[in-house]
Amino acid sequence: MSYLLIGNISALICEENIEPLANARIRIYLPSQNYGVEELARGIFKDLRRLSERDVQAKTDHLLAESMLDERGNFSIAWEDLHLFTEPLEMDICLNSVPGKHGGQQEWVQFHLSTFVPHWKRSKDKYLGAFAYVVPADKWAGIRREFGAWVIAGSVKHMDTLHGMGHLRVEACNALNDKLLGWCHTSDSGRYRLYFSRKDISGGSLLHILKSGDNIFSEGPDVYFRVYEGNRLIWQENKDIALQPERQQLGYCTRLNLFIRPRAAEKKPVRLSGWLNDLIQNGRSKPHYKDQYVTY
Asked: How far apart are CA 175 and CA 178, in angstroms?
């Protein structure tokens, strides 16, 4: 009998913004321990608890199947078995990058996500089950920290109408050195999602390092924004706004909505052509133009 498990795994950036765990690897294991009926009834989620290399090696013999998530976080994973599956399964996720991370991929890191009993439905010669999960924002921020990758999400809205403004270029700048951290375009509804990495913060120079106890870590930047329509700058913030608490040392998952009042397009002076333009530019008199343009 064959089994097919389909589903989606995504992560929460903020209340209004979710990103998929694109190109992650999913692994399904037979249980390595006994679980109580009550535990299984309510589901056991570990919120991506990181596993050590020893933990991964210890469960190698229990591996049932593995597959990759696509760009949308969807997966389809199948395996063969001779009996009906009523026991719980352990699901792990492996990551070697996160959306928006620059500088290539690193070693795979494995996290335990859940232990659960799928609700199997018979379909011809196979059993079909489904699974979907959204990683909480605080857990996802912790994982992004391991990869040194930040994401800012929000909307760009007109200050007067509060309508979302689409097809604009949003730029985030580091107030420490005025360097561009990252940029993106808003959607039709004005939403944006902007990524940058630890390398973008440093600009190739020494990072701003803070020490807390025995742990040394890199904090996020203080930011201010610019907004463009095409190549025209229509709104920008004074960098002093980066001193506000919500703009300082940004977390790895941050929501920031921008309320802007776009600048009016500058009117270009009308260019006069022909004899009238020459008259204004050169201060010539009308008789001179009569001599120039009228043939006797």
From this structure: 5
CA dist 227 and 262 (Å) reads 9
The whole model's pTM is what?
A: 0.78
- Give helix 286-293 / helix 274-282 axis angle, nearest 10°: 140
Expressed as residue numbers, the domain containing 276 is 271-296
Q: Let me know if residue 266 belongs to a domain.
A: no
Question: Which 3 state secondary structure label does DSSP give 126?
Answer: strand
Say if residue 101 is in the same domain as residue 225. Answer: no
Tens digit of pLDDT for each residue in 213-253?
444 344 799 999 999 999 999 999 999 999 999 999 999 99
Q: Which two tokens stand for residue 49?
A: 């608890």
Q: Are 168 and 156 in contact (CB under 8 A)?
A: yes
**246 and 283 part of one domain:** no
| Terminal Cα-to-Cα distance of the chain (whole angstroms) | 104
Pick the range with the lowest mean pLDDT from 36-40, 58-62, 143-147, 283-287.
283-287
Q: What is the pLDDT of residues 186-198, one digit of tens each?
A: 999 999 999 999 8
Q: Is 230 within a domain?
A: yes
Phi, psi of 150 (to 5 degrees): -105, 155
- Regarding whether 216 and 99 lie in a shared domain, the answer is no
Can you give the pLDDT at residue 232?
Answer: 96
Unique residue bearing structure tokens 């990524």? 195
Kindly write down the DSSP assignment for every residue of 217-277, as one continuous string: EEPPPPEEEEEEETTEEEEE--GGGGGSGGGSS--SEEE--EEE-PPPPPPPPPPP-HHHH
Dig out the tokens for 163 from the structure: 């309508």
Residue 5, strand partner residues: 77, 129
Residue-wise pLDDT for 37-57, tens only, equals: 565 555 566 667 899 999 999
Looking at 104, 119, 143, which one is the last position of a domain?
A: 143
Query: Considering its fold, how many domains does the chain have in total?
Result: 3
Rounded CA-CA distance 209/211 in Å is: 7
